[in-house]
Amino acid sequence: MTDDREAAPATRAQRWLRVPKAVVVTVLGLALSAWLIPAMTRQWDDRQKEHELKAGVVADMASVTARALVGGEAFWSGERMTAQEREQLGRQWALSALGIEAQLRTYFSSSMVAGWQVYSWAVDRFINARSVSSSAALKEAVGSGVALDPRVADAAAQLLVLGETTTGPVPTFAVDASSSTKINDRKYLDRLKAMLSPEMTRYEAAPVVATWPALEKGLLGFEQAVADQVLRSHATGFSTTTKDLLHDLLP
User: Fold this and answer.
1) What is the pLDDT of residues 188-244, one digit of tens each?
2) Is the CB of residue 95 less than 8 Å from the CB of residue 132?
3) Does residue 223 sit within a domain?
4) Closest CA to 101 of 151, 64, 46, 49
């Protein structure tokens, strides 16, 4: 009896050993496929969606910037603009800037939001709108304590230094005592300069007398730095990195 009971488990083990290896490999392959393929498919789809999102945000930045700067060109080149046209230009920029800021808040880091807020404030000053919303953006950017991306900080510093030594009719990034803006730009502009002190020191070592086209060029460089940060960054809500893949594979 003892021999019969011991033989039973051995017989079952032998049956398992006789299962063809091809069948075992196929079963394991199907199991792994069912586990891996959905995660890999999501990564592929999300990478495409993230790329489209970034491209759309960058395209919007370029489009609204172009419209604002063309309006600024008209103002500083001496073309006559009615008060209504100037008001409309400022209002359009404010709405566009807030729309892009909302997208950045949803998908990207607080550093990117702060960089865009400083940039939108600078464009507002270039078109001489001096809106409350741009002053509020500057206040939030410097009050957040978030460090700007190095390239964004460098572009912002270069623009501010250019604006300190100018000739001819040019926009100013300094405080305008005649402005009706209620938020105290002086306080927050000083904070911004303190944030950018290392970068500004480099540019102040070789001062350049700037005209409004030079400031416009500086703004374009600033916008490109922000756009580059968008393209380099990971958008929230998309599975695109190795860490995301590992998270998707966990039960």
Assistant:
1) 999 999 999 999 999 999 888 999 999 999 999 999 999 999 999 988 877 666 665
2) no
3) yes
4) 64
The two structure tokens encoding residue 182? 């209620």
What residues pair up with 96 in beta bridges, in sequence order? none
d(CA 107, CA 97): 16
Q: Report if residue 28 sits inside a domain.
A: no
- Tell me, yes or no, whether 242 lies in a domain: no
Query: Phi and psi dihedrals of 241, rounded to 5?
Result: -105, 170
Residue 39 domain-assigned (yes or no):
no
The count of structural domains within the chain is: 1
Which residues, at least 6 apart from 57, have a Cβ–Cβ distance to it below 8 Å? Answer: 100, 103, 104, 107, 230
Cα–Cα distance between 115 and 158 in angstroms, integer? 14
Residue range of the domain that includes 58: 52-229
pLDDT in tens, 86-139: 999 999 999 999 999 999 999 999 999 999 999 999 999 999 888 889 989 999
Q: Average model confidence (pLDDT) for the chain?
A: 83
